[in-house]
Design brief:
- By secondary structure, the chain is α/β, with parallel strands linked by helices.
- The protein folds into two domains: 51-153, uronate isomerase, domain 2, chain A, CATH 1.10.2020; 157-469, Metal-dependent hydrolases (TIM Barrel, Alpha-Beta Barrel).
- Helices cover 49% and strands 7% of the residues.
- The chain has 21 helices and nine strands.
- It has helices at residues 15-28, 43-47, 54-60, 63-71, 95-104, 113-126, 137-148, 155-161, 178-185, 200-203, 210-221, 228-244, 264-276, 281-302, 318-324, 343-349, 365-375, 393-407, 425-445, 451-462, 464-469, and strands spanning 33-35, 164-168, 193-194, 249-254, 305-310, 312-313, 332-333, 357-361, 381-383.
- The strands form three sheets. The chain has a four-stranded parallel beta sheet with strand order 4-5-8-9, covered by helices on one side. A three-stranded parallel beta sheet has the order 1-2-3. It has a two-stranded antiparallel ribbon with strand order 6-7.
- Helix 18 crosses helix 19.
Amino acid sequence: MNSILNPDRLLGSDSAVRQVARGLYESVAKLPIISPHGHVDPSMLVKNEPFANPAELFIYFDHYITRLLHAEGFGLEQLGKQKLAGGTGVQAANPRETWQILCSNWHLFAGTASGYWLTHEFATLFGIDQTPSAQNADRLYDTIAAQLAKPHMLPRALFAQFNIELLATTDDPCDDLSAHQALAADPTFSGRVVPTFRPDLYLDPRANNWVANVDRLLETAGVAGRNYRAYIEAIENRRAYFVANGAVSSDHGVYEPFTTLLAQATAAQLFDQALAGTITPANARSFAGHMLTEMARMSTNDGLVMTIHAGVYRNHSSQTHANFGPDTGHDIPVRAEFTNNLRPLLEAYGMHPNLTVILFSLDESTWGREIAPLAGFYPSVRIGAPWWFLDAPDSAMRYREAITDVAGFYRGSGFIDDTRAFLSIPARHDMARRVDCAYLGRLVVDGRITLEQAQQIAVDLVVAVPKKAFKL
């Protein structure tokens, strides 16, 4: 083990707790990774080409990294983002200079989840046992670059090395899923990679280019007509296509988890208004809420697990969005409310045996106050793991403390890495396993559960819980 990684990290500072947690962790450390929600591009595994360079691998596409460096005054173009007016791609930045920026400002990431994950990756994958700095930046760059050229660092080799049992991607409803089909048909690849149906751009009339999106959806689905009935048929058509290609869930990233159930005639009228550009903001919200409820209805038919990621103000910086587009680090959490917002959906479908709704929130005050109580009653509701800004050691521990008293260990989703950064997947899952073992160790030492119970729960949180939550 590299000296920079403490073997007992995150296992508790109390010696009695740490001793129990260490044994629990050893029992789960090498279990397979189940990753039922994430954003890795499946074409990476199809092409199976070497990663280009350390900056592209660790910085260009990692919003956790670029946003904090941007806050310190570095331009996004220096960090691998290409201005929209200047063309596509990220190659305008000099990768070695971008890497120098990260290493010279490594102190910014002390105590952050990003710093923790990168340290884990550098140590376990590249044998780096020193803290990045301005002085060693070039040496670290060369060390990593030399390793990236070797066969064991190809994406498929890493997939096997990481012991990934299942990897889910996030995909547009109009995607032909050719990458997934190629992987499924390739006898040299034994991994399981499944798509996820992500219909946000087609459900909410407030989305950018919604009319064009709907027209593309209708065309892709091969549905005649341009009305509400055809629209619903097109969505159902594409969901069926995703299921046929291995999908297990649909994903919904919403500002608020607002739901309502409109009469079909009313929904059709609002759909026509949205196409014509005459819909009011209030009616657009109602239509979006209705469509989120419709997704639950469709799930009762096709069985797709419904994940709702709520509480995000997308593209908070208009200037950054105009210059660099979406997904460039300026999505900001907002307060969320679930109890009232979800009641129409749950009144209609919450008791249906074929529905599973997993609730993710960036407002951690909702974990114990709303989400755990909902999951503690409705058979269809599960508690989503700490997500995005909250998928860090301290917030993961707060999550356990917030939900366990109310809903126990078995009403959750299992850990969700939710990442585009492929190499960080083992680090994230290892972190979650360590935090859970530390929490279980505390309960054992406090006499609240037995060691035998803790041993079973530790394994179940890694295997049984996510498999049940996502119907695997």
